[in-house]
């Protein structure tokens, strides 16, 4: 499995604001969308290419283009929705699937509550979206689910990854490359990423307790 952490000052700049506990939900959502765009650009750089003739106003030339259809975008609900808008700027024709997984806060095990995939996801391949890779349980379950639907070409976009989650993905799905905006120190006793950014779903949707 490969983990790529793109080095880009503007990505780091946005990560500082995203992590900041004082950043309100509206700004948090905008930052997450922008980070989704940057990660989607990085993760699709080597998609298979082809060529076609293009008639410019001056002459006709042979130009590189994307060989196949755009890969499907599949956010893991809820927090993955925060990356979707930004990733769609890069892949505007991509169909969108949804996987609903909720992590039990005591056992940390993910429970599936929704599965809705585009019918041609297997042919297109999938960009799987989730801001958090903590224990890796959700990502591993989502990849297992996608593979059971016949999807073999999976790329995953993550905002903050913990080494524990990266190791879990390397063990269960070594064929799935991951692009992460940051690789953090590790998990605390409650399974939260440290230093992390808190609970991305709650910060996106304004559902923090209290
Ligand atoms: C969070 C996060 C990931 C998952 C990561 O989701 O968005 O999906 O936990 O943890 P893991 O790597 O240990 O599985 P959560 O279950 O809290 O749901 P939410 O996105 O609806 O808040």
Q: Which key phrases capture this entry?
A:
Rossmann fold; binds 1-O-pyrophosphono-5-O-phosphono-alpha-D-ribofuranose; alpha/beta; 7 helices; 210 residues; 12 strands
* Tally of structural domains: 1
What's the number of helices?
A: 7
Radius of gyration: 18 Å
Q: How many E-type strands?
A: 12
CATH architecture: 3-Layer(aba) Sandwich
Major sheet summary line: 8 strands, mixed
Range of strand content: 25-35%
Name the structural class.
alpha/beta
| Small molecules held by this entry | 1-O-pyrophosphono-5-O-phosphono-alpha-D-ribofuranose
Oligomer: single chain
The level 1 CATH classification is: Alpha Beta
User: How many angstroms does the end-to-end distance come to?
Assistant: 39 Å
3D shape? globular
Return residue spans where pLDDT drops below 50 for at least 5 consecutive residues: none
Helix share, percent? 25-40%
What is the N-to-C succession of helices and strands? EHHEEEHEEHEEHEHEEEH
The CATH topology: Rossmann fold
Rounded average pLDDT:
96
Describe the structure.
This protein has 210 residues and is an alpha/beta fold. The chain has one domain: Rossmann fold (3-Layer(aba) Sandwich), CATH 3.40.50. It has 7 helices and 12 strands. α1 runs antiparallel to α2. The longest helix is centred in the N-terminal third of the chain and has 19 residues. It is globular. The structure holds 1-O-pyrophosphono-5-O-phosphono-alpha-D-ribofuranose. The site of 1-O-pyrophosphono-5-O-phosphono-alpha-D-ribofuranose (PRP) has 24 residues, from β4, β5, β8, α5 and α7.
């Amino acid at each position: 499995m490969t983990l790529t952490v793109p080095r880009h000052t503007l990505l780091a700049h946005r990560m500082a604001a995203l992590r900041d506990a004082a950043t309100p939900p509206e700004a948090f959502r905008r930052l997450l969308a922008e980070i989704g765009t940057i990660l989607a650009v990085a993760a699709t750089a080597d998609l298979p290419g082809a060529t076609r003739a293009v008639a410019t106003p001056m002459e006709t030339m042979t130009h590189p283009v994307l060989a196949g259809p755009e890969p499907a975008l599949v956010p893991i609900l809820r927090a993955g929705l925060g990356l979707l808008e930004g990733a769609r700027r890069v892949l505007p024709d991509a169909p969108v699937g949804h996987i609903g997984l909720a992590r039990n806060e005591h056992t940390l095990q993910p429970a599936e509550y929704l599965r809705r995939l585009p019918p041609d996801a297997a042919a297109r391949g999938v960009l799987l979206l989730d801001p958090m890779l903590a224990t890796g349980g959700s990502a591993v379950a989502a990849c297992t689910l996608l593979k059971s639907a016949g999807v073999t070409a999976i790329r995953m976009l993550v905002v903050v990854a913990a080494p524990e989650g990266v190791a879990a993905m390397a063990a269960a799905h070594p064929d799935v490359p991951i692009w992460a905006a940051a690789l953090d120190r590790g998990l605390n006793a409650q399974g939260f990423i440290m230093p992390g950014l808190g609970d991305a779903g709650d910060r996106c949707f304004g559902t923090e307790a209290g």
